[in-house]
Design goal:
With about 300 residues, this protein is α+β, with helices and mostly antiparallel strands. About 15% of the residues lie in helices and about 35% in strands. The chain is built from five helices and 15 strands. It starts with a helix and ends in an 11-residue tail after the last strand.
Amino acid sequence: MTGRKARLGESMDRAELYAVLDRYLAALQDRAPQRLRWAEGARTSENNVMLEIGDGLWGTIDRLGDYDLRFADTRTGQVGFFGVTHEHAEESGFALRLKVAADGAIEEAESIVVRQSDSGIKFLNPRFWDKPIMNSPAEVPTPRAEMIALADGYFSTLQQNDGTIRTKFHPECDRVENGVQTTRNPEFAYVVPVAALGCEEQFRMGNYRYDDRLRGRRFPLVDEERGIVMAFGFIDHCGRIKEYQLTDGRTVQSPIRYPHSFYLAELFRIDAGMIRQIEANFITVPYHMKSPWDGQ
């Protein structure tokens, strides 16, 4: 590490952050956390629970899959990754956020492993594939604060969804959740009755009325060059709604009829002030579970 990068208060560039990510993933695959440089007092969580370094997935992973979606925030020294893990016979979506000190030591590691065997709602036939839109630079960059506001507006649109749009969607916006495309995909109607529609059209139907709260919203990583916001949060379902009407008059059944919460990592690809693509990994956690990162 050069003296320039080692000075306190400076962050690493994209290539250096990706190099730390590569070292982390290689060490994870080899179950060798001791190979990494951890900052004093480093914090690490898996599935919303703080763990000792080397616990959790570090002891059970067999290998990583081929899916490799990465992004970096050089302003805050953070790097993120969406990929796949294999443990025994289970393939799982995997999300990771690392915060890296200027000298290359890892200060924070936050991960989600979407093990379907633990899932409250199973998404059938997940697959993990490269999406060119997620890997290309933004054609028309959007200011950092506006990017965060658009992602937050998405969460506000989702919360108690009644057809009101509180963000801006690109006409071709699509969404992938836990390895399944949940927009423009009629085969997903077993969970989402309006799955054949695009992002904005689904929300205008008020399909997600049963999402009572979207709390603990965090936006720790913003890749301004790529137009990606990495967000975290919780969706709470009180479970009291049995059925409700869509804005076209249809009556549908709520898929969740008991107190329930999702913990999520969600990516928003933003271009020209509009959400162009969404990708999310989320798991069921105890109802109204708090975040160890901010207590919300």
